[in-house]
Amino acid sequence: METTNFKIVSANSQIDWTGRKVTGAHNGTIGIKEGYFILNDGKINSGKIIIDTTSIKILDVTDSATNAQFAGHLASDDFFSIEKFPTAKLDILTVKEISNNTYHLEGNLTIKDITHLVGFEAQVKNDGNKIVLTGKLVIDRTKYDIKFRSGNFFVDLGDTLIYNDFDLDFTITAEAIFSAQSKN
Questions:
Q1: Domains and CATH numbers, the chain
Q2: Alpha-carbon distance 68 to 144, whole Å?
Q3: Lipid/polyisoprenoid-binding YceI-like domain: from which residue to which, for each copy (predicted)?
């Protein structure tokens, strides 16, 4: 069995987030600090992705003062508590091939030191020395103690309600760092 380790290239990877509320949505980006994937015989076996929560950006709010206020709120304890938790992580535990180049990944997602099992589909392009994963992960923020304006915890929010699920659309590029033969 050939095992190949791939290191995530943060500069060539992107996560776009979308959060929805009754009156619309907000969107932005969040960076990947580092990570890796381990492939056995050309197929993903496991991996780890470290997300830099301090890098969260809001793209749809163009007024600089409003954007800064919103960014400060996302950084606060109402949302990601980035001073206490500057990173989040996803540890990929299982990978099942659904069809050619499409996989179902499951792993432990940790946000604010709270961990839950998540599953999602990803398309994987593998050219031997580089892999690119694309897909979407939908997260229920309330499982990670992000309860601000959630209908699960507050009543009579009206049009200030923020929906619990948020989307992470990702494109992650990783490059091979070495290859070794194993005798399993």
A1: 2-181 (2.40.128.110)
A2: 24
A3: 5-175
* Integer Cα distance of 37 and 45 in angstroms: 8
Residues 6+ apart with CB under 8 A from 4: 38, 39, 42, 176, 178, 179
Contacts of 178 (CB under 8 A, 6+ apart): 4, 5
**CA neighbor of 51 nearest in space, from 131, 130, 128, 139:** 139
Structure tokens at 135: 């897909």
Q: What is the largest CA-CA distance in the chain?
A: 62
**47-72 pLDDT per residue, tens:** 999 999 999 998 998 999 988 887 88
Q: Which helix (H) or strand (E) holds 73?
A: helix 64-75
What is the torsional sign of CA 143, 148, 152, 153?
A: positive
pLDDT value for 75: 83
CB distance 89 to 52 below 8 Å? no
3-state secondary structure of 62: coil
